[in-house]
User: Fold these one by one.
Assistant:
Number 1:
Amino acid sequence: MPRTQQDRSKATQAALMKAARPMFAERGYANVAADEIVAAAGLTRGALHHHFKDKQGLFRAVFEQIETELSDEIDAAIATADDTATRMAISLRTFLDVCERPEVLRIALLDAPTVLGWDTWREIESEHGLKLINRLMTQAASEGVLAHEPSEVLTRFVFSVLVEAVMVIAHADDATAARAQVEQSLGIVLSGLFSAPG
């Protein structure tokens, strides 16, 4: 059956993203040339400009792809938890786990704020990480687990703490020891949100 133009467009976009993603992850955005990406994808520079406008547009698509995958992974991890407090604990561990992956650290946390600009990075994060945190905190508040109703500011504070926690682990000489310290410190900081132990 002949492919439609839409099918061909999706295939081209997928090929460019598949070629670019490992390059961005291994070497960083600044050290990857657009010509390298199109050559690896077996396409032309025109295809890149047609579907993503430029290398930055392609990077944004890769970043959004990663964010969607991470949100789906965390959702899957917490799906079988019996209560919101358990879901929050599982989501925290899963978030730290996935952010230790070199690909996620480089693309989503190190390069994205610089390449896309802080406002755009936060906007995309709002559709993924912040939305998940807000959902869990709203559920916890409805169950009487949180001491206060979650607000946008509080949700952003929690997200900022989690991002800083990931950075501490990423830049530590001993990542294992740093991870243990981070988890302990997060427990201290975040315990103030709860109205009861657990």
Note: The longest helix spans residues 55-78.
Number 2:
Amino acid sequence: MVTISHCFENLRSQKKCALIPFIMAGDPDLTTTAAAIRVLDRHGADFIEVGVPYSDPLADGPVIHAAATRAIGEKVNLRQVLTMLREITPEIKAPLILFTYYNLILHRGVQSFLADIVAAGVRGLVVPDLPLEEAKLLIQMASAFGVEVILLVAPTSSPERIAAIAAQSQGFVYLVSVTGVTGMRSQIENRVHNILINIRNVTDKAIGVGFGISTPEQAQQVKQWGADAVIVGSAFVKQLGENTPQVGLQGIEKLCCQLKAAISPVVRKSSLTVSG
């Protein structure tokens, strides 16, 4: 199984910035989620982050929280999400990253949870409510299953904590660009650039920036600041949650293409002079 780390090594060798869309599983239904993953995979997503609906999502802003609430209202649970992923991952090129809260992992049992997500084709795991001090056991167990646990750096993290998180994070380091929860913002704070530099000074691992990015212009800015990946969530979730499935899928296709174009290298055509 190709790891997230290996995918980033390949992308960086080509000087490419990765696009990581986030969607909430089960909103509006799991059939649409499966279709959305296929659409994103076909139209430029380098990795796809899939959220598991949870009743008390501490890191989620209003758009993603509402999506999780709708999915829970439709009785969507972790077992159903993994069943859906297991059915579609054989046809998906982009590695899947599961975004879930630690209580769901504990409820299932850490070892059983890891075995189940591996069987579903998941290659990365983000657990936003798992602090660094309690992550070591999960990281060790996940490594044995070939799953990479991606840790988050907050904009308020001290230099010492940034170094500690970067040392333990697998796959890439996830930089949260704003203080607070997920959601669309009108602009990306300039301090993100400085934090990116601070992380780069302590690790050679890839760095992804998320929370608050929703437009091609913001994605391009983050890439110019040196990010290896741009993570976009609420903008995709909003398309799927506020439209019919057909319109929502068309919307995420368009957004994915726009974001990918914004962070892709510009290919300049060379002019040829023909002498007579």
Note: Residues 245-263 form the longest helix (19 residues).
Number 3:
Amino acid sequence: MADLRTPELGHIVVLAGGLSYEREVSLRSGRRVADALRSLDLDVEIRDADATLLDALQAAPPDAVLPVLHGSMGEDGAIRDVLDLLDVPYVGAGPQACRIAWDKPTAKSVVRAAGLTTPPSVTLPKEVFHDLGAAALLDRVVSRLDLPLFVKPARGGSALGVSVVREAGDLPAAMVGCFAYGDAALIERYVEGTEIAVSVIERDGEPVALPAVEIVPAGELYDYTARYDAGDTEFVTPARISDEAARQAADAAVTAHRALGLRDLSRTDLIVDAVGRVNFLEVNVAPGMTETSLFPRAVTAAGLDLGRTLRDLIARRRFP
């Protein structure tokens, strides 16, 4: 990304924290982002998304806001609505695009319509699961989708409440675990293959895919512990996939970014199966920025500096 000359860029607020299950991850992301921007001699303040935020933003409007809030408030469009109401520029997707991307079944439908391959799935709200008879319903799910299955909250992040189901008898417990983190479960056919993440940044208004990061967890799942405990997961950049699969993965991430109406930055999670087909899993509008997160790894693999990359995105929101 071009090194913009932005002496006019003044006070920047990094939003981190919030009250979601991912609060601690968000705070770690916020600290890393603030340090990266401060290394460029920028005036950066970290603020939590709490009862003091609205008054603070109105009393001293920042030049721009960089949200690194994870979970519902940070990714469901709500905080973006608030920033729009205050006429404060911010990095990242607008409220409507966030709402669509945050809802995984809706996002899957949108990207499928755009031509991407995504595993077949069903979505079951907690009420339907209980009211219609769990046993009979889950029997039909297994019959329709086949085993193994992947169960995850229809809305949420950091792999909280996710599980792989290889035996039909394990599905009820997986559903209960999922419902601990959300009111609806997305049940997908599990795709065996190479798990990768492709981050996207915008250059001159055009989304550009960064090198794919391959994810090799110590256990079966790239779960919350594997994501955020250093040493629990091996990351390989660029991913060990064919050149053709790498091209398709980059195209898929850019297609998802465009189809969902995202802007500035995003991260798309994909699986490359045994025949080299790229499968869309989900997209993240507020990628993690911790020391183990995928977006900063992709930035580094592209030969870019995290602070300068984020500064340039901020400058484009402040001076469109």
Note: Residues 1-6 have pLDDT under 50 and may be disordered.
